[in-house]
């Protein structure tokens, strides 16, 4: 379900969900609801996997459940991607806070280059050393290309908090990144 941090960037919803489909899903039409959640799943999975790491699948499932339960509260179809991203981010932070992180096996079948695998492992280990809050602002800023003000809205914190978390996250990532042996990194 979830794709790792190193895969495609989830900048915007990669599918086009029509207002009609959304309204049918909100009215409880099972097929429309199934199609809507199926189309949201990869997008939500990438965000959750980037923030909650090992628990990304759980965060994605919880996110889809929240979307399912609260779909009738969404009034503007154009806001679906933003709404789903907000729920995914908050749920990922919540789950990441409660579960200790551990390096799991990466999908090495997708990696054709040993250096790329080493790089993925180093990036993952570096991200694991950041707090869930720092991972969230880094992912939203770097992978979602969101402005600090929008991140603040999504996380329900002040723009100043986002700015300081982002600065700390980048500094911490840089420090942790430099601590890994450079002999494993590609030239």
From TrEMBL:
CDD domains cross-referenced by the UniProt entry = Sigma70_r4
The source's superkingdom equals: Bacteria
Q: Which InterPro entries match?
A: RNA_pol_sigma-70-like (IPR039425), RNA_pol_sigma-70_dom (IPR014284), RNA_pol_sigma70_r2 (IPR007627), RNA_pol_sigma70_r4_t2 (IPR013249), RNA_pol_sigma_r2 (IPR013325), RNA_pol_sigma_r3/r4-like (IPR013324), WH-like_DNA-bd_sf (IPR036388)
Q: Which GO-annotated molecular functions does the record name?
A: DNA binding; sigma factor activity
GO BP terms, alphabetized = DNA-templated transcription initiation
UniProt record similarity statement: Belongs to the sigma-70 factor family. ECF subfamily.
Q: What is this protein called?
A: Sigma-70 family RNA polymerase sigma factor
Q: What is the scientific name of the source organism?
A: Antrihabitans stalagmiti
